[in-house]
TrEMBL record:
<dbReference type="GO" id="GO:0016831">
    <property type="term" value="F:carboxy-lyase activity"/>
</dbReference>
<feature type="domain" description="3-octaprenyl-4-hydroxybenzoate carboxy-lyase-like Rift-related">
    <location>
        <begin position="124"/>
        <end position="312"/>
    </location>
</feature>
<comment type="similarity">
    <text>Belongs to the UbiD family.</text>
</comment>
<protein>
    <submittedName>
        <fullName>3-octaprenyl-4hydroxybenzoate decarboxylase</fullName>
    </submittedName>
</protein>
<feature type="domain" description="3-octaprenyl-4-hydroxybenzoate carboxy-lyase-like N-terminal">
    <location>
        <begin position="10"/>
        <end position="84"/>
    </location>
</feature>
<dbReference type="InterPro" id="IPR048304">
    <property type="entry name" value="UbiD_Rift_dom"/>
</dbReference>
<dbReference type="InterPro" id="IPR002830">
    <property type="entry name" value="UbiD"/>
</dbReference>
<dbReference type="InterPro" id="IPR049383">
    <property type="entry name" value="UbiD-like_N"/>
</dbReference>
<feature type="domain" description="3-octaprenyl-4-hydroxybenzoate carboxy-lyase-like C-terminal">
    <location>
        <begin position="318"/>
        <end position="441"/>
    </location>
</feature>
<dbReference type="Pfam" id="PF20696">
    <property type="entry name" value="UbiD_C"/>
</dbReference>
<dbReference type="Pfam" id="PF20695">
    <property type="entry name" value="UbiD_N"/>
</dbReference>
<dbReference type="Pfam" id="PF01977">
    <property type="entry name" value="UbiD"/>
</dbReference>
<dbReference type="GO" id="GO:0005737">
    <property type="term" value="C:cytoplasm"/>
</dbReference>
<dbReference type="InterPro" id="IPR049381">
    <property type="entry name" value="UbiD-like_C"/>
</dbReference>
Length: 478
């Protein structure tokens, strides 16, 4: 059963003894982020700060996604793949191509219970509230200022009426202006370009904070652009999101803790950053557009949801792990060769990905690499490793053994020059263009090796059985 809102989630965690309430006074300037990171690195449960210096009436929440356990809490299950599997099985084995299935998703969804539902808002307009009065945090000493780190930036596609909910960091400049860090190729910036094409430079936007954590996770997820994020949140929650429409036409979650209504002015680009990012480095300044606040809404005794990124594994890493599991069934639908994938926390999600395949023909691994680089946000992956299906992608020693025992670098490493990489990647020569590397760590077919692949050593089963009994008698006791 889905949480109605953030408060519902907090009551659940409190009742499970999994909420740390901090009553000591704490500062939004570095202190909350520092304590949050210590908590995440120790897999401690969420922290609710009840006494935030200089922001009476507000509480600040962090560390909701404290580990995979934190993700299981918000979904009420540790079988994250089953969410996608159950959903996909609900429209069965249609006698259509994979592509037709993907294309028909939105229309199937529209009929279902996953649609957003119009509800009375739990928040009210507050004419005194402005951006400086939000308990947004400064997360690293050399950050340009205070940022909204877990707010959801909502736009609406001007052509297709699709709702885009996305986590982008937002740098507060003054009471009514903030910089929206939507990277190129993300939903926000792509729909902004569409507005520009039709001569609109003031893009209607809402910035929402404090909702059911599944909605926040959906906003951070690489949902295919043709699919409405409210619908996808509805699938993940197994229940449509309660929404309400703002005067600027943007639909926002009806039970959000705070909502900022306004527009992003595409004619007003200013330098954003520096900001300590998920790669563990400060990203340099770059130009991003300015959000201009028109109206603010807030609930009584509001809660402000924040996070901090930095060297892994922090909250974004656990979101990434959850997303990896949830999206695997959907990805298998598009790339049927796939068996499993691992986007390791320390691989930064945009840098290293390991994929196992059911290998049936020569050249298949390189074909899959290219499919991965052509699929949504997996296209940002800098290094893709393909292994055979019997390799456990989550056991990095097995992956290293696969690389060591199957790869001839000249034949099996594919370098793609001047490809699109993560704009935040400081290693690439001219962001966002950098090279990519694919490693085919599968056993080779005769056509690939030029001769038969050698036979692998295997024990004689009878001997193995016999000596295992002997071993059990002689092995040192723990
Ligand atoms: C904590 C956190 C901060 C993020 N900050 C940004 C950001 O500043 N800019 C950005 O483009 N993506 C950022 N992301 C990644 C996006 O949320 C992610 O790519 C998501 O799928 C949104 O893409 P979409 O708008 O195309 O759906 C962040 C993710 C997390 C979890």
């Amino acid at each position: 059963m889905a949480f109605k809102d953030l408060r519902d989630y907090l009551s659940h965690m409190r009742s499970r003894g999994k909420l740390i309430e901090v009553n000591q006074e704490i500062d939004v300037d570095l202190e909350i982020a520092e304590l949050g990171r210590i908590a995440t690195y120790s897999h401690a449960p969420p922290l609710l700060f009840n006494n935030v210096k200089g922001y009476p009436g507000w509480k600040v929440l962090t560390n909701v996604y404290y580990s995979l356990d934190g993700i299981y809490e918000i979904f009420g299950t540790d079988k994250l793949e089953s969410i996608g599997e159950n959903f996909l099985s609900s429209f069965g084995d249609l006698p259509t191509s994979m592509l037709d299935k993907v294309k028909s998703l939105p229309s199937i969804l529209k009929m279902g219970k996953y649609m957003p539902k119009e509800r009375r808002p739990s928040f009210e307009e507050d004419q005194r509230l402005n951006l400086e009065l939000l308990p947004a945090t400064k997360t690293w000493p050399k950050d340009a200022g205070r940022y909204m780190t877990f707010s959801i930036v909502i736009t609406k596609d001007p052509e297709k009426n699709i709702n885009n909910l996305s986590i982008y960091r937002v740098q507060i400049i003054n009471e009514r202006e903030a910089l929206v860090h939507w990277q190129a190729f993300k939903r926000g910036s792509m729909s902004a370009l569409k507005y520009k094409d039709i001569g609109i430079t003031k893009v209607p936007v809402a910035i929402v904070n404090g909702v059911d954590p599944i909605i926040t996770l959906t906003a951070a997820s690489p949902v295919p652009p043709g699919l409405d994020k409210y619908l996808f949140a509805g699938i993940l929650r197994d229940e449509g999101v309660d929404v309400t429409e703002l005067d600027n036409g943007i639909l926002v979650p009806a039970h959000a803790e705070s909502v900022l209504e306004g527009y992003v002015d595409l004619n007003d680009m200013r330098l954003e950053g520096p900001f300590g990012d998920h790669l563990g480095y400060y990203t340099p300044q770059d130009y991003y557009p300015v959000f201009k606040l028109e109206k603010a809404y807030v609930r009584e005794n509001p809660i402000y949801h924040v996070t901090s990124v930095g060297k892994p594994p922090l909250e974004d890493a656990w979101i990434g792990k959850g997303v990896e599991r949830i999206f695997l069934p959907f990805l298998k639908m598009i790339i049927p060769d796939l068996v499993d994938m691992n986007l390791p926390e320390y691989g930064l999600f945009t840098s290293v990905g390991i994929f196992s395949i059911r290998k049936r023909y020569p050249g298949q691994a390189k074909r899959v690499m290219m499919a991965i680089w052509g699929t949504g946000q997996l296209s940002f992956l800098k290094t893709v490793v393909i292994v055979d299906q019997d390799v456990n992608v989550h056991d990095l020693n097995q992956v290293v053994y696969a690389i060591a025992s199957t790869v001839d670098p000249q034949r099996d490493v594919l370098i793609v020059p001047n490809a699109l990489n993560d704009t935040l990647d400081h290693t690439v020569p001219s962001p966002p263009l950098g090279s990519k590397m694919g490693i085919d760590a599968t056993r080779k077919f005769k056509e690939e090796l030029g001769r038969e692949w050698p036979e692998e050593v295997k024990s004689d089963p009878e001997i193995l059985k016999k000596v295992t009994e002997i071993w059990n008698n002689i092995k040192p006791r723990a």
